[in-house]
């Protein structure tokens, strides 16, 4: 599609080699609206990546935009540390009324800093403080963040190696179906906990994603999550659900763990919580765990008030009834049906997912990268995931229309065909 | 001043006990402009805290606001991961042209995630990877952040204890004048490095703040910084300057290390870099250190494009000539002169600082807290710092007018008098 | 049996509470010969514990005693650091000629200090240095020693807690049959190694006991050991066999791994290597692994020359032909047959073992302790093992005669009956 | 002296490259008596090394030899785990009556395993358990052993690197006079402890040698030791004196800390405690620290009964009165006087020491190795110490006669002259 090569020189000469997505999408984006991005040469891209799940309501959602502009125009507090502000109060009240209360969730809310890894770091600190133990259980192919605490419970060997120090105090356990159903759930995990001779340092907590996005769209069954919650309870470990990517409606309900009927001790929320792609994160926990001292964890940007404004607007706009959840499940069926057709057409292809998060994988592990590259040429933004980048990951905005979905799925089908 | 007690119940019941600043300032802020905040009951507060140094150009600076509104209105990319965007390009070009090139600084730019601790984590990772060593030297009373990597090189025992695991791989050395001039600079540090029997794990890097803000406004002399840079060079350690709070003009020049004439290997920048209080951070390093693999460190909000927009506007507005630096040094003299008068009037009081960062301290360590409390009642926002909160910290916006400065300094003098 | 209570006051008042075996055997031993100990009140005890496997040739074996007395009388070097001595040369030559060469084992010999944990520490250091990785795989219910390096790969939670620091860099895997045959061997271990997203730090080595003595007499099948050796080879990990308790003929052949036909990269040897109960240990490794620098690991008592003398005498006396192995297997059958009878007589009892190491276990986990207590009263020394002390452990000297074995096994049977 | 080259092939081909002392002394030793060793070619060597301080009463001391032979001949218990035995009782009673009681020392006695590093590991574990903290303070150029716990508090970079993992939880402080008197004692250490912002993890304990043997014969002044004891008391840290090499009379009194008049909380003892060069070690601690659980730390050879026999004999023979201490101080003066003469004769030479431990050092750091090599050729065994092997270390047996001392000191003087 691209005719003239964009001039990327300032990026390639001045920006660090660490940059990544921009390598797969060699153009310069300028504007975005809803499900589409536009580059400066006027090309249009349908976005099935949605800021890695940070843009569940689409780019520059007009309702949220209006609230944001109004707030900025009237000189509402922008940077608020952890001061009490009217914007923060409005967010807290909405979160209480729209999200927590209807779900009977009695959580304290912490603003740990505006990124997901801030939330994970605070969750791990709190769990360790509450239980007085260092060890945390994570799962194979987990992704929880890039600061040292979060990285220690993240699976990817390349990212772990970046730490430059041995990552310790974390032990991986098999995620659901990791061993292809050849072993009973939790047989190894529970035996380690029961046996005082097992050599496992008794864990403070277990941290889990209900669907592993970066790990390859691995979907935990509700019964597996219930089994895990039960195991944690019986062995005095806290259960932390990292809902940074799968929360805020990505799988259908606001929290991804609702379907399983479990109530985690600690929940991390970020990415789409601001609704507008602005940095914001929450750590939620049961009130009896709130043993923090004032300022024991903090962060300069934990009071990003413009994000509170769009976050409150998003909650009030989309979550006051069950409509959004229903719509997401419906659109998910549309995606699933298209993937089913692709898989039927291509031997070695398979798919998995839930709500509006789906993965398409091939026996040939290099195929996913090729599919995404071709899709980009065809004007569709898609990324891979999984330890070998072997999965095409679909994360369209929840507000993507059936027509847009259909358009993107057709491009995907074509990209698959054209990479045979 | 406050007549009716504000209703803080949603904060006290729903928000975690970890909140801190809001406890000292028990009101609900609503709007802000320049050097002033306004609470919802219509009270006005002169701000000598400036978002802990994140608002060097004042609250909702009108020039930056205009740029931000324009960008949002035209649906510029909001959330950009590390995609190439026109907003990012504009920022990079401004940073190159306005900051790096005139200072002959040849740095690669990394967007490590939008908070200071993201920048520090990435700096430590890179140093460890480059040198193949785990150990980092930090300084007494350093503050570098709250995620585990940054916390391990932070001095405060209360915050360190929050980690819930033993913090290792870091060794503190005495900051400038820590031992009251009773020992030669670096005598201990250098001996440890020279002696293969010393027991010090050979460090990958040293991380330092030129002025320790959280640590109590401890100002390193330029010759001490030069000695440190020389020590690092001679002993094959990287020098990391954490300029998160002291950079962006806080001490006068754009980078706080310019006065000493040193060129750190790695620099962390955050807080005021966006200019508008929006989350944004940079890690700068010499090109030969750029051995990152693509995506080896990342973060969802590392492409906070609205922040790039205000950042570029701030650079173009304030740093195209030497005016800002000159102004800051002049205003600093105004502050110093007022503090000198206060110290002369109160036995046991002393002060220290540089540019627009100053500390006022008392022999009675509880006094600073009392002064800040009284100042709040008088409509002035001030915070304490130091290991025992024994220092009144002055961080007015760089754009504070002489008249505003004068007003605040008079309130401060009164608060000191009234807490005798 | 004991009529008068022995006066243990000097032990109970002066010695630390850490003492353990002496609590179960409340008498004062004075002399010992062959399979018997004698207390100072003239009582006789048949020893089925043999110094926890350090006295494979019985107490004060007369052949070794003669060699030792001769050496001491002629003022042979006693304490030799790592000097070359005639006694060390004689041992090395015997070890080469009697043990290594006939088994086609090409190992370098290291004297790491005279205790088992010295050998394990040196083995782990060497593996980490060779592979440049920190992580070590150990097995559930492993016991490798009490210094920090060894303790980190030991399973017992009580002993681990004694470290006072979090024990890291080790990960436990399921020992043979740990999950009751409900999962394929190594399914979890291998998947973790294959999957770069698993979160397992790539290990330098795996350390294993072929029979776990302290862990409860858990016997690894030869095919499991072969599978493990194969896994290590395929995944570039060193295989360390800790043969401290099971080597020196305890299971039949000199090395316990011979039956499986594997050749470990590193072997630790201690306990019965001196033959006389004197402190001595060896670390054996393939020549290509010998990348130690001179003195990189050392220890004051690594040249315990009297132990070299008895060790050489033991090798020459017992291992010049296959007689000892044959005899051990025969005596083992005698033990097994007696245990079979006991198990048949008592529901809930079961047994396991190999060569001259056996375990008798009961569904009632408290029973083993009761049986050992009763056995002591009847003049038989037995200890428990296993994470809950639920296993009666039989470790008679290999030189125990059929008649002595028969005597002890009858006492054991009686003790079992009398604790019903 | 050596005419024919000894055949060292079995050592060079079969033993690991880790061997060290044997490289400097390329001969094969066979017998030893008192202050002399004899190689198998009939050469005689005067020993000024004494098993690195393990042979304070000379080689194969006839009194201890008699006791040992009697014990072995009568089949006394050889290997006793931690069983109560008559030999152990006799040792405990002697230790109580001859050592502890006359010095008013109320210590519990632990047998932690028979090597120095076992004792250090147990001391560190206990300190951490008692205080509930991980961090230990050690000193520059300390040597405490080679297992991981001990190595982490040892200074030598080469030996530390052998660990293969980053050694953490230890922080070095300057030993007495480390900074050449240019700083007040403990100025840095105490400031770190007082300042809650210093970044030092609060230590459980400080471990110190009163004279650093391996570290270069660095002698702590009594007032420095008293200052340290006082600092520990005031800051709630345990004081551990590692008296493994300097105890048992090496510096004059039985414990090297007696001269300073301090009472450590924990003391480690090994090397010369058995008196005969047999492996044995003790950990002593104040009764209120004895919170060990039974078996929480153990070791197979912790009941090396032959060593208890020679240990008791040594105490009864040499320590029943003050004669030994007096004699050591006298012989020390003889050594000092000879070293003074050498230093006077050679510019750049200096000496230091206490009792019967002395160091001779040269400005040319390579000189010490040359001196020791020449001394060996002249029939005198000497070793170097210090981080660069820059110190000739003199550790003659305490029983060395004035004539033998004189002989050795003359050889030393000649070796120094001949290496000019």
UniProtKB/TrEMBL annotation, chains A, B, C, D:
Enzyme Commission code(s) on record: 2.6.1.76
PROSITE patterns: AA_TRANSFER_CLASS_3
Cofactor: pyridoxal 5'-phosphate
Domain of life assignment: Bacteria
Pathway: Amine and polyamine biosynthesis; ectoine biosynthesis; L-ectoine from L-aspartate 4-semialdehyde: step 1/3
Keywords assigned: Aminotransferase, Pyridoxal phosphate, Transferase
A GO biological-process term: ectoine biosynthetic process
One Gene Ontology term of the molecular function aspect: diaminobutyrate-pyruvate transaminase activity
Pfam families named among the record's database cross-references: Aminotran_3
InterPro entries: Aminotrans_3, Aminotrans_3_PPA_site, Dat, Ectoine_EctB, PyrdxlP-dep_Trfase, PyrdxlP-dep_Trfase_major, PyrdxlP-dep_Trfase_small
UniProt similarity note: Belongs to the class-III pyridoxal-phosphate-dependent aminotransferase family.
Protein name as annotated: Diaminobutyrate--2-oxoglutarate transaminase
Source organism per UniProt: Streptomyces marincola
């Amino acid at each position: 599609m691209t005719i003239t090569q964009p001039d990327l020189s300032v990026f390639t000469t001045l920006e660090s080699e660490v940059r990544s997505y921009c390598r797969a999408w060699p153009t310069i984006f300028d504007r975005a609206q809803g499900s589409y991005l536009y580059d400066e040469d006027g090309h249009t891209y349908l976005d099935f990546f949605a800021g890695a799940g940070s843009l569940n309501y689409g780019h520059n959602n007009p309702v949220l935009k209006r609230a944001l502009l109004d707030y900025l125009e009237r000189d509402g507090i922008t940077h608020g540390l952890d001061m009490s502000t009217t914007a923060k109060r409005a967010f807290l009240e909405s979160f209480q009324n729209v999200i927590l209360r209807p779900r009977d969730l009695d959580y304290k809310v912490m603003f740990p800093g505006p990124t997901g890894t801030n939330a994970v770091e605070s969750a791990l600190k709190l769990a360790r403080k509450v239980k007085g133990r260092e060890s945390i259980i994570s799962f194979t192919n987990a992704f929880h963040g890039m600061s040292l605490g979060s990285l220690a419970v993240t699976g990817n060997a390349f990212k772990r190696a970046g730490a430059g120090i041995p990552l310790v105090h974390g032990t991986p356990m098999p995620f659901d179906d990791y061993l292809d159903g050849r072993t009973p759930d939790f047989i190894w995990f529970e035996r380690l906990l029961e046996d005082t001779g097992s050599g496992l340092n008794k864990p403070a907590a277990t941290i889990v994603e209900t669907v592993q996005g970066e790990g390859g769209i691995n979907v935990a069954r509700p019964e597996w999550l219930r089994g895990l919650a039960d195991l944690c309870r019986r062995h005095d470990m806290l259960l932390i659900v990292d809902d940074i990517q799968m929360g805020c409606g990505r799988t259908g309900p606001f929290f991804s763990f609702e379907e399983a009927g479990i109530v985690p001790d600690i929940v991390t929320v970020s990415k789409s919580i601001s609704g507008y792609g602005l940095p914001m994160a929450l750590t939620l926990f049961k009130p009896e765990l709130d043993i923090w001292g004032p300022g024991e964890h903090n962060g300069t940007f934990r009071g990003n008030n413009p994000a509170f404004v769009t976050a409150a607007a998003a909650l009030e706009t989309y979550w006051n009834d069950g409509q959004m959840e229903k719509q997401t499940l419906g659109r998910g069926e549309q995606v699933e049906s298209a993937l089913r057709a692709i898989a039927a057409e291509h031997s070695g292809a398979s798919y998995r997912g839930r709500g509006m998060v789906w993965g398409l994988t091939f026996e040939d592990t290099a195929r996913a990268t090729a599919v995404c590259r071709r899709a980009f040429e065809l004007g569709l933004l898609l990324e891979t995931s999984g330890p070998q980048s072997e999965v095409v990951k679909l994360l369209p905005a929840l507000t993507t229309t059936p027509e847009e979905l259909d358009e993107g799925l057709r491009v995907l089908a074509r990209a698959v065909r054209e990479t045979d």
